[in-house]
């Protein structure tokens, strides 16, 4: 299996291998702020959390996903993220299927989670590129990806069918290995800035 399950630990976040033990806290995290009702993203409803965890773990067993539970330093689950669309032959992963409870959004948790995931991908797994994809209309997600230092590769128009009959255009971003040192320095700088 490439990559293997691993726990990544920072000052603001812990990324641990996802399991059904996380389901009760993740149900509560999804319910806070009714995140599952947002039309432009796909966050599991509280009642669907066990099924979503099972889906992600099945993709892990198939070798196409490595799912993490996102936790605060006191080990409280507040969301999920993954390496997905894993391409071991070409040493590429996508970071995606990410969501966080509302209370931890717009803080250092996401910045550090992405730095941990990118560092593991480039420094440990020797990835040649890491990809990010989001709905073209999800401006919050696109701004967050761009703040990481990822570059827009393009937009896949009419790429997928979405909920309630919508059609999704997908914005595709990436960071390549040669860009990682500058991206790492930028993320470290952001984490060192005082938060308002």
Q: What this model shows, in words?
A:
The chain has an eight-stranded mixed beta sheet with strand order 1-2-3-4-5-6-8-7, with helices on both faces. The chain has helices at 23-31, 49-61, 108-124, 139-148, 180-192; strands at residues 8-9, 14-17, 65-71, 77-87, 92-100, 129-135, 151-161, 167-176. It has one domain: Gcn5-related N-acetyltransferase (GNAT) (Aminopeptidase, 3-Layer(aba) Sandwich), CATH 3.40.630.30. It contains five helices and eight strands, in the order E-E-H-H-E-E-E-H-E-H-E-E-H. A hairpin with a 4-residue loop joins strand 1 and strand 2 (14-17). With 196 residues, the protein is an alpha+beta fold.
Please provide a brief summary of the model.
This protein has about 200 residues and is an alpha+beta fold.
């Amino acid at each position: 299996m490439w990559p293997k399950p691993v726990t990544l630990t920072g000052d603001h976040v812990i990324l641990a291998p996802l399991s059904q033990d996380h389901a009760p806290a993740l149900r509560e995290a999804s319910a806070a702020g009714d995140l599952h009702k947002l039309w432009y993203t796909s966050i599991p409803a509280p009642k669907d959390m066990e099924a979503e965890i099972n889906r992600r773990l099945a993709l892990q067993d198939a070798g196409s996903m490595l799912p993490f539970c996102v936790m605060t330093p006191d080990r409280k689950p507040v969301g999920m993220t993954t390496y997905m669309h894993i391409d071991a032959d070409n040493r590429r992963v996508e970071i995606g299927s990410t969501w966080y409870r509302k209370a931890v959004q717009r803080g250092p948790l996401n910045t550090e989670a992405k730095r941990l995931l990118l560092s593991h991908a480039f420094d440990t797994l020797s990835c040649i590129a890491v990809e990010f994809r989001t709905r073209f209309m999800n401006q919050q997600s696109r701004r967050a990806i761009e703040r990481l230092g990822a570059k827009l590769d393009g937009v896949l128009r009419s790429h997928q069918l979405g909920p309630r009959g919508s059609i999704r255009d997908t914005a595709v971003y990436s960071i390549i290995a040669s860009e990682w040192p500058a991206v790492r320095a930028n993320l470290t700088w952001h984490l060192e800035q005082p938060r308002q």
